[in-house]
Amino acid sequence: MNSRERILKALALEKSDRIPVVPFIITFAAEYGKVRFIEYATNPNVLAKSQEAVARRFQIDAVYVDSDPVVEIEAMGARVHYPEDESAVVLEPTLKTPEDMTLLRVPDPEKDGRLPVWINAIQILKETVGEEYAVFANINGPFAAAAQLLGIVETAKCMRKSSSSLSRLLDLTTQTIVEFMKAEILAGADAIILGDPMSSTNVISPKEFEQFSFPYIRRIIHQSEGTPVILHICGNTTKIIDKMVETGATYLELDSSVDLAEVRRKFGDRIGLIGNVSPTLLLTGSQEAVEESCRKAIEAGGLTGTYILGTGCELPKKTPYANLDAMIRAAEKYGKYL
Questions:
Q1: 59-99: per-residue pLDDT in tens?
Q2: Do 85 and 38 contact (CB within 8 A), yes or no?
Q3: CA distances from 146 to 17, 24, 62, 73, 170 (A)
Q4: Cα distance between residue 197 and residue 203, in whole Å
Q5: Ordered domains of the chain (ranges, CATH)
Q6: Phi first, then psi: what are they for 325, rounded to 5°?
Q7: CA atoms in the 13 A half-sphere facing the CB of 24
Q8: 241-298 pLDDT, tens digit each
Q9: Cα torsion through 27, 32, 35, 40, rounded to 10
Q10: Burial class (CB in 10 A: 0-12, 13-18, 19+), 145
């Protein structure tokens, strides 16, 4: 059974030969490929080649198209800054108020900003390694997009005093992300990863998540046309796990601060789980510590066909190769299905 077959079984919540391994890899791929990150983020051939190289060297089961959390809003009209060797960022809010969203547009994924970079990278990976590896593609969450357009202070103000205006902006970011997701699926993505770090309960309350993030995430997932969606929200999401499950996501990618075993006990095998080995441990820990953490994660996730071994968040770009090797070793040692 090859990596693609292994992942497709897992996405269907079925057993294969063993638990798949899919760490959250972006900057590590550029570092491994010895390319500047600005090239990785703007050149689909570089992105695809870097992901393929990492998958082959470390025996990871999926390649992953992602570079930064601002690709959609840049295509909408946001001002984005490009460091030479780090992810693109928004340095200042594009909008002063939600009413300024008339300055924005719903972009064409085939033409606007760097959206075509991701679409082309998916197509390249599908053509070159699509029979061997599953192709995952990212979209960024609608609340995170709105919060970056407005800035944290204005977003917090709107949540309290101008919720209807914020909702209109969220409708716009949701429409943008849905169109981008559909283009990624058409390009050949086997699964979509929806990441929304601003929806973390480290940033907003569970009540605010339920009002300003949950319904828009659910709307996106319900338009995924049967393609599995993996939902990732950073931080300790224990207080919103019920709503995350309710979005209709096929899998939840959980951060290392979440009790994986408790989530599994609560929801059984009706939801797939990815995670949640600490990226910090992978960066600074020993091979033995990484392997033991992976063993515990596999035990918590269960040998039922509904668990993928992965990281709690993005793998640091300076992670020792031996520690990534230890993840694969753990899956082969402890993750075989009976």
A1: 999 999 999 999 999 999 998 999 888 899 998 999 999 99
A2: yes
A3: 42, 24, 29, 8, 6
A4: 8
A5: 3-334 (3.20.20.210)
A6: -60, -35
A7: 30
A8: 999 999 999 999 999 999 999 999 999 999 999 999 999 999 999 999 999 999 999 9
A9: -40
A10: buried
Amino acid in the structure at residue 59: Q
Give the integer Cα–Cα distance in Å for 151 and 141.
Answer: 15
Q: What does the buried/exposed string (b/e) look like for 214-238 if buried means 16 or more CB atoms within 10 Å of the residue's CB?
A: bebbbbbbebbeebbbbbbbbbbbb
Question: Measured over all CA atoms, what is the biggest interatomic distance in the chain, rounded to whole angstroms?
Answer: 57
- 152: which DSSP letter? H
- CA dist 181 and 227 (Å) reads 10
| Structure token digits, residue 42 | 């703007």
311 pairs with which residues across the strands? 277
Cα-Cα end-to-end distance for the chain: 15
Helix, strand, or coil here: 148?
A: helix
- Count other Cβ atoms within 10 Å, centred on residue 167: 17
pLDDT-derived band at 318 (thresholds 50, 70, 90) equals very high
Cβ(59)–Cβ(18) under 8 Å?
no
| Token pair in block for residue 45 | 């051939």
Token pair 């101008």 is found at: 162
Number of Cα atoms under 13 Å in the Cβ half of residue 273: 29
Cα 313 from chain centre: 9
Token pair of 295 as six digits = 């063993």
Residue with structure tokens 């969203």? 101
**DSSP code string of 256-277:** TTS-HHHHHHHHTTSSEEEEEE
